[in-house]
Amino acid sequence: MYPFVYQALSQRVVFGSGTIDQVGDELARMDLAKALVLTTPQQEETGRKMLEALGARAADLFAGAAMHTPVEVTEKALEQVNAVSADCVVSIGGGSTTGLGKAIALRTDLPQIVIPTSYAGSEATPILGETKDGAKTTQRSMKVLPEVIVYDVDLTMSLPAKMTVTSGLNAIAHSVEGLYTQDRNPVISIIAQEGIAALTRALPVIHERPDDAEARSDALYGAWACGTVLGAVGMALHHKICHVLGGSFDLPHAETHSVILPHATAYNERAVARELTPVASIFQSESAALGLWTFARRLDAPMTLSELGMKQSDLDRAVGIMMNNPYWNPQPLLEEDLRGLLDDAFFGRAPGASL
Ligand code: NAD
């Protein structure tokens, strides 16, 4: 066994079907009486239902959460927190809504109950990414780790099949990098494999039958496992690339993860093939990268950066940003190799084609 340090995070997790009915009890358990419910504009209806269900414990609804947690949106939400003297936030939605709840918690220390409806995994992490004036910065702080997660499978049934696939691949990416990261540990590696296996079972079924409750349950369980990995250990090249492409080129979050994952995995598999063996085994493939690529194709996931709106003329600039501030990665970061990786991802070639 290799030496390791593992800091477990403390969170209460409620998982099941119909669990949204328990949110009021969770508030009562923490002696909270004035919840500000958060959603995106698209999920306002779900937020209104929550407001009704919470009755006297609900203060108001803020339905303005947006991708990449813009600081202007947080400031607007904070005005509402103050106006209604909220004593907690209840975030219902994907990573964007969870991000807003975290941004409020960072500034107010208010407790958070998160009800995730996608597989992004933010609810299980002490990480917050925010954007201001077009630049995205990320920080880790225990202040933003949600106190309670309520996973209700029923709320994920409406996640469109296409988003289910990309969101699921986004989750798998956390676990793939968690297996080879510098501060990996044996407990988190087991959780990572469990998460990848659950999503690998579930996604093809949901792709065919989006209302398959058992597969939805498996997928949400897998997403929790993968989020736990992201919250517990550091990431590497794959997450860095997606951060740059999302933050500086405005590419969509989950879709970018879907396109990049096989290519970043091929890049690193040269250095950490042993750590990635469980991934190759789950996909019954000769390599983790090829297994991930074939899986994504089978699910009709986006396969090219070009279809996400990236311009070929921006690839050099993207590599420049990625090389600019150095970070740990198992395979040395070489400008030429990175450029090849982006080129493969841009055109949708097989992973590792340019390496
Ligand atoms: P998202 O939250 O932006 O959701 C995309 C759209 O889908 C939104 O309109 C949302 O309302 C809608 N939606 C979500 N669940 C739905 C459902 N069940 N039914 C119908 N519509 C639904 O996208 P995301 O991929 O979940 O999250 C991406 C954001 O989360 C990014 O900003 C990313 O940086 C952040 N993120 C942060 C962390 C972290 O640890 N800090 C981890 C992962 C992602």
- CA-CA gap between termini: 31 Å
**Portion in helices:** 40-55%
| Oligomeric state of the chains present here | single chain
Which CATH first-tier class of the largest domain would you pick?
A: Mainly Alpha
Widest beta sheet: strand line-up: 1-8-5-4-2-3
CATH architecture of the largest domain: Up-down Bundle
Main sheet overview: 6 strands, parallel
Strand content: 5-15%
Radius of gyration, in angstroms, nearest whole number = 20 Å
- Heterogens: nicotinamide-adenine-dinucleotide
Give the name of the CATH superfamily of the largest domain: Dehydroquinate synthase-like - alpha domain
What sequence of helices (H) and strands (E) makes up the elements? EHEHEHEHEEEEHHHHHHHHHH
Shape: globular
